[in-house]
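Help wanted!
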Amino acid sequence: MNLELTDEQIALRDAARGVLSRFDTVAAAREALETPGTLPDLWPASVDAGWPGLVVAERHGGIELGLFEAMLVAEELGKVLASVPFIGVVPAAALLSLGDHPAAAPTAEGELRPVYVPACPPSPRVDDDVWTVDGIDGERIAAPVVHRDGSAWSVTGTVGWVPDAPGADLLVVVAIDDGRPVALVVDAGAAGVEIESETRYDATRRMANIHLDGAVATALSCSEQDIAGAWYSAQALLAAEAVGTVDTCLALATAYAKERFTFGRAIGSYQAIKHELVETLRRLQNARALLLNVGWAAGAAPDDVSMAASAARYSSGQALDFAARSLINVHGGIGATWEHDAPLYFRRAQLSRRLVGGVGGAADRLADESLARARRAVEAAGVR
Amino acid sequence: MDLDDSQEQAEYRAEVRAWIAEHRFEAPPGTGDMEDAAYIEARRTWQGQLSDARLVGVTWPAEFGGPGRGPVDQVIVNQELAAAGVPGGIDVIGLGLMGPCIMVNGTAAQKERYLAPMLHGDEIWCQLFSEPAAGSDLAAVQCRARRDDDGTWRLTGQKVWTTNAQFARFGMCLARTDGDQPKHKGLTMFIVPMDADGVTVRGLRQISGEAEFNEVFLDEVAVGGDEMVVGGEGGGWGAALTVLMYERMMIGLGTEGFGYSPERFAGAVAASPRMDRESGLRTRLADVVVELLAVRFRGLESLSQLADGRVPGPEFGLAKITTVNAVIAAGDLIADVNGPDALVEPGEWAYLISFLPGLKSAGGAEPILRNTVGERVMGLPPEPRLDKKITFDELVARQREGLAA
Ligand SMILES: Cc1cc2nc3c(=O)[nH]c(=O)nc-3n(C[C@H](O)[C@H](O)[C@H](O)COP(=O)(O)OP(=O)(O)OC[C@H]3O[C@@H](n4cnc5c(N)ncnc54)[C@H](O)[C@@H]3O)c2cc1C
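Answered by r_m:
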């Protein structure tokens, strides 16, 4: 048994830290709030670091690492609020690679940028086969559908708030073909594709609402399990990114609690503040342990990934919400001012928890998985 | 990253499993009446059998009669025992806390005398630390020890919440030998024979109605000479800290051993159609599951550090906080979903629900654990204290004045 990071994983993480240290990403996050559209382009740095090809197979020119390694990078991105197309790129690159699509190699090279257009697999508890996506208005709506005309495929539907979609060259869309999910590749510039760029509240996050209206598509040859896996890897990446942000929130709040004095002593000596900081640490450590659960499952127990990823997303989302509010609280009035960095992390927390099915959606899924497993166990015992 | 057994571990597991399969029908039930002498005797005999098979105190070094294996092997044994539904050793306090305390702080003669019978279950131990006026503030113990002219130590005082004292052969007792020292200084750790004259054990019934813990009165108890002192005169606090460290470790790694698993609690509500109708109940289930899954992986993380020779620090206390609160939430959920029937006594869930409020205090109350982690792990400044730089006797006198005023 061994849950320690390998030397290779540590090197990858340290390299990510090194790359990101060359940019003042937190200042950029503020700047983008003041002047929309001014985010620095970190894509070239990401390509240099090999991140687009992280999970792409070697035969397609990728590095062929696992989901957990991508999560290590996501955590570093989250620490500094870096605006790197990543959460949307990695699951798309994975599907292109699994489907042996010709775009896999240029993706690994960084010449083409794909984005994953997420769809949530049906719940194991509920007896239907409905794949859903985020609607623009907060509703969960049915995934896009395929229309076949002979050998020509097209896809129609809407997906709201897709991270990293603006600027993508290719869309990897999950859609329903005669009741079954398929992964499709759609050219971002094709007729019938509208990519409506959006930013909300957290200017570091580039998103788009995607409207597909009979857009020409080609099918990727990947399994239903691979397609569901893309959803759970997006959950895991968002979880890892949130863990990184919690880490920073805690470091900032702890440092302040040691240097701010009231009534003759540091505020960190008061239990109300101390215990709140310890609560953030507790949540951080739990969330991080759940990232390990995902990493382990991804390598050794594929059937556990859905539950592990949902647990990680839920835990880290709750932790980030707590940590970002606590960061403001520990700082008192100054924490609630525009000039302070605390609101940048708060904005990140507010938007993140509502993306890609939402943190609440992950909680639902976790409960559904637990119930379904418990019920299967009873059935199995009955059969025996 | 893997959770698989190495070749060596797999072989060990197979060995352990084979032994258990052969002997499981000789084992007493895992739960029983801890006030029933026959049940205790059966558990003691079973610990002896396990010990002969080298399946208790797995990490105890060979020089103390143990198998001297790694912490992962202890977990393998725990898992196999749990899977077979048979109990481990009855003396968890001796095996987990007092044995290691003697190994670290004891004299050669003490190790020679006490460890082997402890391992074998021949002599069960209890922890005589807490007192009516010293729990969280353990260093405030008032139980007094004084030395007679012939070198015999005599102890007088009252201990409380002492688990297993009703059948223990020895107690590890923290007592004050010098009231003219500041409170952490004048403490000494003693081995107390529980059958000595002047020791009275009285059962304390808990919420469940059972008496697993006790009050212990010590009235001029002659425990013996310096051979009964562990860690030297005045070294009591250091010895107590070793125990507290092992206690933290036991609690941090022991969750699954107590049966606090997400699968068990999900199983307890899964049959109810209300879980399908009410999303509020599902969210509460998710809250329980997410916390206990996290504790599971925190435990595995710590184990892989231990296996690597690193001792996890005080942040272990956080696992205790997570576990206790998650299990309280689980009990509430199970009773909400299943209705008053879940509260039938004696019964699995009524027992759990009754046990958990006490577990909040046992092994360190939540605010104390948070203070420790905040100060020792995060480097936050301690609270101002009124009990430093004065002698213990002065401190007690001031507290009395404060009460009187
Ligand atoms: C089931 C069970 C088994 C036990 N077994 C044993 C045993 O075998 N041997 C043994 O020696 N002891 C045992 N104990 C005792 C246990 O260690 C104590 O109960 C525990 O340390 C708390 O001490 P206390 O009960 O005196 O509460 P107190 O210390 O009086 O605490 C009362 C309340 O005040 C709070 N509090 C105290 N100090 C502070 C502070 N500085 N800041 C904020 N809040 C504070 C506490 O959190 C608690 O809520 C057992 C307890 C239980 C419930």
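OP: Thanks! One thing I noticed: Residues 1-112 of chain A form a domain with the Butyryl-Coa Dehydrogenase, subunit A; domain 1 fold (CATH 1.10.540.10).
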